Amino acid sequence: MTACADTGVAYLAALDGTPDAGRLRLAASLGALLGARDFDSLLHAGGAALDAVPAGAGGPGASHAREAALALELADAAVESRRRSKGAWRLRARALEALGRPAEAAEAYGRYLDLSEGGPAAYEVALHLATLREKRDCLARAAALGPDTASASSGDGPDGCPHARAFTAAVRDELPDADTRRAFTAHVAARMRERGAGDGDVRRLAALYATYCRLLEQPRVTDPLLGDCAPLGIGELRGLVAGRRVCLVADSAASAEGPAERGAEIDGYDLVVRCDGYRAGTPGGGTRTDLHAVTPDPAAPRERLRHARWHDPVEARIVFAESGDDWQRAVRELVPGAQRFAGDVALRRPLADPALLGEDGWGARPSTAFTVLRLLDFLDVSRAVDLFGYELPGQLREEEREWVAAHAKGSGEIRMSLR
């Protein structure tokens, strides 16, 4: 810890007079570390050091290499202090990746997963680790398709050899992705000029190049079929709710902290629907979730699209979104095996879709609960559609509350019924 404090002091002393926002936050974290000198401050300072490294700026010689190196030193100290700390191993993996050392980073990510007990963070790391390994495999297989070593070592080989040497060196030295991609692009172009696009090795090289570039832009999921779950269109949804008693449970403290009898009543319904980031397993809110509906924020960064509740096993999960691109972006983050049915594009925006309700006037992003409620009312095949906790403020918009109040067949302090 003392050595890390000395390194932190040296880093602060070397800052110039106009640090950027990331470095300012790092300086504040280092100040906290110097004051507290505890494990949590160590991890926080390491994370701040990595946050100060711009995306894609890693690798030897990068302008923010000092911050990445500082993060690695702090991570090593954390690992030395607590060998079984998941946070320390993940920090070390991220620092190694920022320094352009993917093989060592993969080992550290693997150690994190060995210590993990599952959950959203572990799933995210597993996906990232799978992407790292697949990128390395693409590069290794592509390098093996290059000219033979003797020809590549001489300066007299075919036109593709200088580019092949540069690409092989980039793979061997584990250069940052941006540098490797440039070398890979030049190598593929040279091989095409040399042998033509119809050559078998050139076709294989081009396929590996396409996979590598695709992985740089969009990390691969472990199961593109989402655990063999079936698509849920309007017909399948009608079959799912037909003849069943359905309830929508609001995510509110009043519902969660209510009497256990109410929770048992909720669990007694045929289909329990919850929306967005719901509470689960509370005395008054029940324990079951059969259908999970969510409307992700399209402006949220990619890591926040991995919804905290998307790991919970449910019978069906529906994603609502105004644009097709936003819907596809969110659906890619669904967890394989966490749902038997996943809503298809036909259920993307049922209120405004002229093929379904075709209603205007609910705004650009109606609440998730109201969208589900109107969809169930439109289908009109359920024996009961009851709402728990939605008469409380903040659960629905004013115009949505007015619609529910006008159509409710019965209401109470907590429950409102449409059937």
What does this 3D model show about the protein?
- This protein has 419 residues and is an alpha/beta fold.
- It has 3 domains: 2-116, Serine Threonine Protein Phosphatase 5, Tetratricopeptide repeat; 136-217; 230-417.
- Helix content is 53%, strand content 9%.
- The protein contains 18 helices and 9 strands.
- It has a 9-stranded mixed sheet.
- β8 (410-411) and β9 (415-417) form a beta hairpin.
- α3 runs antiparallel to α4.
- The longest helix is centred in the first third of the chain and has 25 residues, at 120-144.
- The radius of gyration is 27 Å and the shape is globular.
- The N and C termini lie far apart (64 Å).
- Mean pLDDT is 81; it is low at 148-160.
Keywords:
single chain, 419 residues, alpha/beta, Serine Threonine Protein Phosphatase 5, Tetratricopeptide repeat, 18 helices, 9% strand, globular
